[in-house]
Protein 1
Amino acid sequence: MKPQLSIVVPMYNESANIGSFYERVTRVLEGTGYSYEIICVNDGSRDNTLELLKELRRKDTRVKIIDLSRNFGKEVAMTAGLDFAAGEAVIPIDADLQDPPELIPQLIDKWQEGYDVVYATRLRREGESGLKKLTAHLFYRLIRRLTPIDIPADTGDFRLMSRQVVDALRLLRERHRFMKGLFSWVGFSQAGVPYLRDPRHAGRSKFNYWKLWNFAIEGITSFSFLPLQVFTYLGFFIASAAFLFALYLIGDKFINGNPVPGYPSLMVTILFFGGIQLITLGVIGEYIGRIYNESKRRPLYLVRDAIGFDYQSARWNRREV
Ligand code: UDP
Ligand code: MG
């Protein structure tokens, strides 16, 4: 029997959270009256996450485990979970209880009203520094400006998606997966439910500012050519300015008889243009690197073991990843 709900949980070194996560989620899900499965994706954890998951599964067969061959990152781990999920509605959620499972009944209610995607929107972030909040705020605004798709602000991956939406998402096999963007790209009818984001239950966040920065670049390059176009216009602007400056210099020399100013202006110009050209090359490089990565068409992830997916064995055997 296929379950009605699939909960998808990417897990990387989450042994300190698994127990309380399982309890809270189970309590909520039991209350909804729907049948469900909890798909835990072990994303190459170095602690005993996998052992704890297997222990859980011995008690409760609704817990299913996908063990990836190494750490592939949260976005890919979540994709693996979505690929294996069989439910009529699928809910990705973090293992660290920052996404309150208690919100799930509200997500389900909206889904029952007929929405295909019901996302949870953060009203407030607890236990996160002012700088993290500021950068997150700027990030969402920037992405909204730069990309043509409408990504709701302050929305993470915590959401409910109908089977139709999950099937649509499964068609998008790009390696550079900016999930928030992909979620919006597929469209369908979407609604938001506000909530208060809790601090991490235990352990440390795996994200740092360098990762966030790269995440932002990923988001922008995945959905926008604007960084490339900016330099086209900048190039035009600088070339025009240079032309006018040249006219001025020639006039100054031949009409006023002033000597052409020398070394300092030359140095400034050369360094300035050198810098601009390197930046432009860098931006082009960001895109070329992504083209290179996509063109290799490697599988998104490799599964070492998938436990509890008997009815999907056909999909699993075809290694459709
Ligand atoms: N995660 C993962 N693979 C990774 C990093 C994180 O599967 O390489 C999982 C992690 O176990 C958690 C979720 O992704 O369930 C969110 O991670 P984290 O709490 O570190 O991110 P933050 O909440 O700071 O954005
Ligand atoms: Mg977290």
Protein 2
Amino acid sequence: MIVLVINAGSSSVKFTCFDMAGGGKPLAGGLIERIGLDDTSMKYTNHKGDVLKSKVAVKDAQEAVKLISDKLVDPQHGVLKSLSEVKAIGHRVVHGGESVTDPVIIDEKVKAIIRDCFSIAPLHNPPNLIGIEACEAVFPGVANVGVFDTAFHATMPAHAYLYGLPYDLYTEHKIRRYGFHGTSHAYVSRQAAALLGAKPEDVKVIVCHLGNGGSISAVSGGKCQDTSMGLTPLEGLIMGTRCGDLDPAIVWNIMKIKGLDANGVDNYLNKKSGLLGLAGIGSSDLRDIEEAHNKGNQQCRQALETYAYRIKKYIGAYMAALGGLDCVAFTAGVGENSATMRELVLKGLDGLGLKLDKAKNDLRSSEPRFVNASDSPIKIAVIPTDEEQEIAGQTYALVK
Ligand code: ADP
């Protein structure tokens, strides 16, 4: 049984085609990244060993899904004879509010829930839905399954998900912390336990998911205790284009200074802030900012330090929340690939029991691994996330 997983995100669409009958073996996969920018690119690999990289013209998630489907049946590099071999499609969906906490078959009711959450997940739910609707058009009659990012965080205790606001905002309007990247936090925290040679029930892990969007979670006994994103994916860390934590009074100050209404300030904080706004070089890509910093750009240096400092503060806070720690795990685009950023985040944390081994940290690898010094009381891991595998497994379990 072939399951296709589509992860239509804020700046990239990842895809993997799994043969679930063959034990969940990935047949092909890849990503289209920097969508909407001038230098959009596609990477495609298959189980025959083909690795293709090309510049492509893709302006949104819908165009990306079409390109992916063409590639899967490509006479030379494809892995399927016909698109009819695809029996189910698992979609990463970011926000399901409080009503969707498990994987679900997507019907009109579920699409309405996804649409209802547009206002609180403006960067993600719209491309997620475009991805779903593109799949409905390209793969008619195939079951589409939604695997929601909010699900793993459903175990948070009330003291972690409530805000210091009048209680009726929660009871009547569901204003609370939900958390995101749940599929990744679930997968990486389980992998961290495996790397430690322990059961998830027996370990305390902080997962730093640092991609274009970023969030941190505190996981104890395999269950999420707290996470940095909130009602929306805007709270918490400084991200590619999102501001993360702010003094709420800044919101109405910006509205006055820039002459913006509510939608305007929403757009400003979601799309013009974060690394893009701080570094000021017209890019939200950490690679570009690191490169400019290496050429001596001082504003970029400050942006990198500010980004790292926010992560460091969360690690300290979550060590307190968990009352101890076995492992900090770094994952996603930045967490897996930027040794510089990991070093900057962990600088000065030796006294808390987090000692990095610089040589191990600098080694590139796609394997889960420890990068801590041998005498570090707390382990430091780099664990490639595999949201696609997790989504494929949940999709298969639901439709088979
Ligand atoms: P998302 O899924 O949220 O769009 P990803 O997890 O794909 O994001 O991560 C994208 C981010 O990872 C980009 O900002 C990019 O700069 C960063 N990234 C990828 N590779 C590297 C690298 N080698 N060094 C630094 N940053 C990297």
Protein 3
Amino acid sequence: MVIVKIGVLALQGAFREHKKMLESCGAEAIEVRTTDDVNSVDGLIIPGGESTTIGKMMVDWGLLDTIKDRASHGMPIYGTCAGMILLAKDIVGSEQPRLGLMDICVRRNAFGRQVESFEADLHVAEFGTEPVRAVFIRAPYIESAGREVKVLAVVDEHIVIARQGNYLATAFHPELTQDDRIHKFFIGMVQESLGK
Ligand code: GLN
């Protein structure tokens, strides 16, 4: 495998777990906090956490425009949970800062306040017959998606995995399980973007 360098935005949230999983998949992984970090990686993961906090810090630390610029030149980005919210063009009832790169409308804390967290087995055609065990924590879902967006999995008819070109989003936290297929899929997207 060609080794790619993937950054994990490390402002707040579950970034350490993503880094570990990327490394166990054979990728080089770094924590990203500066524009130089953003410019040094082949792909970027935006972790789960608190999307309003991460978004505000991205603005304060001058990262938002640099990430958008790299994205417009084809850098793959994968957002999990809060990361998915930050990738979305539209967030129901919120004006919070975001990258706005994916043509999706997301609803925050969408599975109901009483359901703080739950797990589900997802059927994802791309990953064969073995279901993906997904951990949802105050999770959002994708309420609607544009025509360019490919839906990869749903829960109760709500979209929870989607891809649009160089962007991938999951409403749940694969880094908290032993299942590394989504990280491997993203590493494949990064290799593809480099023509490797
Ligand atoms: N509910 C959080 C938000 O809106 C996301 C939760 C998570 O990332 N686990 O930012």
